[in-house]
Amino acid sequence: MTSPGIAVSVEQVVKRYGSVTALHGVSLDIRENEFFTLLGPSGCGKTTLLRAIAGFEDVTEGHIRLKGKDLVDQPPFKRPVNTVFQQYALFPHMSVTDNVMFGLLRKGWSRQEAERRVRDVLELVQLSDFAARKPGQLSGGQQQRVALARALAPRPEVLLLDEPLSALDLKLRQAVRMELKAIQRETGIAFIFVTHDQEEALTMSDRIAVMSSGRVQQVGPPREIYEAPVNRFVADFIGETNLLDVEVESVNDGMAKVLLPGNRRFECPAAAVEARGAGHLSVRPERISICAEAAGDLIATVTGHTYLGTDNQLHVKLVDGEVMSIRLQNTESTLLPKTGDVIGLELEAGAARLLAD
Amino acid sequence: MAAGAPVGAGGTSNIYKGSGWKLLFPSWVIIGIFLLAPVLMMAVYSFLTKEFRGGVIWEFSLNAYDQFFFDRGLFGDEPPTLEWTYIGIFWRSIWQAGLATITCLLIGFPTAWFIATRKPESRSIWLFLVTIPYWVNLLIRTVSMKFLIRDTGPLNEFLLSLHVINEPLGLINTNFAVQLGLFYSYLPFMVLPIYAAVERYDFSLSEAAADLYASTWTILWLVILPVVRPGIIAGCILVFVPSLGAFLAPDLLGGAKTFMIGSLIEEQFKGNAGNWPFGAAASMILLTIVMCVLLVYARNQNKAEAR
Fold first, then answer.
1. What is B35-96 written as a DSSP string?
2. Is A340 on the interface with B (CB under 8 A)?
3. Domain-by-domain residue ranges, chain A?
4. A53, A57, A88, A91, best to mutate vs chain B, most B CBs in 10 Å
5. Region A256-274: what's the mean pLDDT?
6. Are A212 and A40 spatial neighbours (Cβ–Cβ below 8 Å)?
7. Which of A120, A167, A191, B27 has minimal CB crowding within 10 Å?
8. How far apart are CA A219 and CA A229, in angstroms?
């Protein structure tokens, strides 16, 4: 049974299509009022999980509970959850108003109440002036907001969003992110948001579940996912990182002593890893600074750099041939080493992390 | 609609500027020879005087239309009363064609839906199967139908031999037989346009409706049917219009009781009993009815798009 404060509880859900397993026993708790993101590359099972919650896919094993009530045997039209579809799936023959009113009327609202609710929701998504238009007469961003209004109107217990921003262009996508987050706070409904875009996930979510090949790799707030990834996949998928092959000397109380390439010793936090042997050290490019050769944790040769506007990206090669990238903020005082220079690299203590495979 | 069209046209028209009419010329010639000229001829003939052995005398007359609508007694000297014979035939034809259209829709829609929801590889096979009967001439198909359902035909023989029935069903020369013939003749004209519409249908709309608490029938009624409506209407027109003027099925399967417009017109141009101006007038009246149906459709279509 679920404890109070949990909106949706996914328990050991397995989904098989013939011989292919899309979900390998996924368990998750999504809290009330939470912006929860399922993040992962395509084919990781995130959309399958979302569709299972909506009821479009049957689960092979396991349970999905909404506020403690098992949903598994209920058809989609009986589940008090609504979905914002990737391509919006707006009814092309109905006006914006009729689209938004559709769910309300099916749920048995009176016409008067439904009309009032539609007005309120359209105001929330700032589309009041477009109420009489057909979806074909709206821009992509406006259609996206109609889809959101339509799904929010019947006051679902949970709102499911299937990559709703992927069809928008970049500028619009960034604006809509903030809007979506604001609407989530205002309505107080739990949002389950599916995306493959890690930036989207980091900027909007209260918590993120990183998925790959049908399994949940890590669940946590954005900062934790980014700064304390539990394994190589998460570290690599979220943001940019440098993964160094290191020799683990000892692990004690979550702190590891490792031998870096070039044989200098380094102490860093560790995810659950073997106490000894080979390991991977993940260091974010912006958590590395350059210093004199003798003072560095690592010694490297500069192989080039890339201008990124806010940052300069420095490409370096270590003594053992490993390639790393470093981000230096673009200020006037930053003196960039030239290609061919040999420099020292200082890893920020606590920001590097020893990972399991 | 108003916003979309000029943009698209403006984008490509520059290369063809001024040569539009030249490109359209072949189409105009074909439409002129095969559509406008015959209709005009028919219109002119309907206002001429009949020659007793077929053909016309070039003398203006409203007799054909008068004969269609009014009864002036055996010698033409009584005060005119409304003539119900031909209006009755028209009414029966419209009724028969409408019924055939509805039957085709009820069978054709599920068929089209079935085909459109198969795997893409097998769809063309199903479509091929639907069109196979059309490789055989309509006359031969209709005659075959007559042989199948007549009192001594295979259907009755089979049922008699099983003792399901004790005497032949008497299907031939009934409205049912005409319906069967029309249905069999025009079903693909219903299936194909609906198939095209259903194939384009975005099934995430059904999912969205289910997500918004709509049951299966509600989805069909409020989402699927309105979205594929253009295909349904096209199918209905393609079945209704030829059914209205059909003469093979009513002639061969229906007999005298189920006389339809097509047969009436056909008779006027056949043999010595013919009356060309009257046949032409009946054709013009039929044409007017069909045009009215199409105009109503076109107006609805425009309204739906403008909204």
1. IIHHHHHHHHHTTSEEPTTSSEESS---HHHHHHHEE--TTS-SPPEE-HHHHHHHHHHHHH
2. no
3. 6-227, 240-355
4. A91
5. 82
6. yes
7. B27
8. 10
Nearest to B210 among A77, A93, A107 (CB): A77
Spatial distance between the Cα atoms of B224 and B207, rounded to a whole number of angstroms: 11
Compute the average pLDDT of residues A145-157.
Answer: 94
**Are the Cβ atoms of B222 and A102 closer than 8 angstroms?**
yes
* pTM, two decimal places: 0.80
- Counting DSSP H helices and E strands in chain A, the numbers are 8, 20
**Predicted pLDDT at B218:** 94
Cα separation of A239 and A222, whole Å?
11
pLDDT level of residue B201 (50, 70, 90 thresholds): very high
Dig out the tokens for A112 from the structure.
Answer: 């008067």
Mutation site, A87, A101, A106, A159, interface B, largest B CB count within 10 A: A106
CB contact under 8 A, B205 and A89: yes
Compute CA A4 distance to the chain's CA centroid, rounded to the nearest angstrom. 25
Residue B8 has pLDDT above 80, yes or no: no
β-partners of residue A252 are A255
Angle at A12 between CA A11 and CA A16, to 5 degrees: 125
Q: Which residues pair with A242 in a beta bridge?
A: A283
ipTM of the modeled complex: 0.82
> Could you read off the pLDDT of A99-127 as tens digits, one per residue?
999 999 999 999 999 999 999 999 988 89
Residues sharing a CB contact under 8 Å with residue B268, sequence separation 6 or more, in sequence order: B274, B275, B276, B278, B279, B280, B282
Mean pLDDT of B113-131: 92
* Residue recorded with tokens 């689960």: A59
Question: Which residues 6+ apart lie within 8 Å of B173 measured at CB?
Answer: B253, B254, B255, B256, B257, B258
**A169 pLDDT exceeds 90?**
no
The pLDDT, as a whole number, for residue B11 is 47
Cβ burial, residue B205 (10 Å; 0-12/13-18/19+): buried
Please check the confidence at residue A337 and state whether its pLDDT lies above 90: no
Tens of pLDDT, residue by residue over B175-186, are: 888 899 999 989
Tokens of B71: 């009864």
Contact yes or no for A83 and B208 at CB 8 A: yes
Question: CA-CA distance, A132 to B304, in Å (whole number)?
Answer: 14
Domains and CATH numbers, chain B: 93-268 (1.10.3720.10)
Q: State the pLDDT confidence band at B7, using cuts at 50, 70 and 90.
A: very low
d(CA A221, CA A205): 7
- Residue A328 β-bridge partners: A312
Q: Which chain A residue shows the shortest CA-CA distance from B4?
A: A137
CATH class of A240-355: mainly beta
Question: φ and ψ at A32, to 5 degrees?
Answer: -70, 150
- The token pair at B237 is 């027109």
Read off the tokens for A218.
């890590």
Q: Does A154 touch chain B (CB under 8 A)?
A: yes
Residues of B in contact with A97 (CB under 8 A): none
Q: How high is the pLDDT of residue B221?
A: 94
CA distances from B187 to A108, A269, B96 (A): 39, 74, 15
Given a contact cutoff of 8 angstroms between Cβ atoms, the answer to whether B92 and B258 are in contact is: yes
Tokens 């974010």: give the residue.
A284
CATH class of A6-227: alpha beta
Measured CA to CA, the distance from residue B12 to residue B8 in angstroms comes to: 7
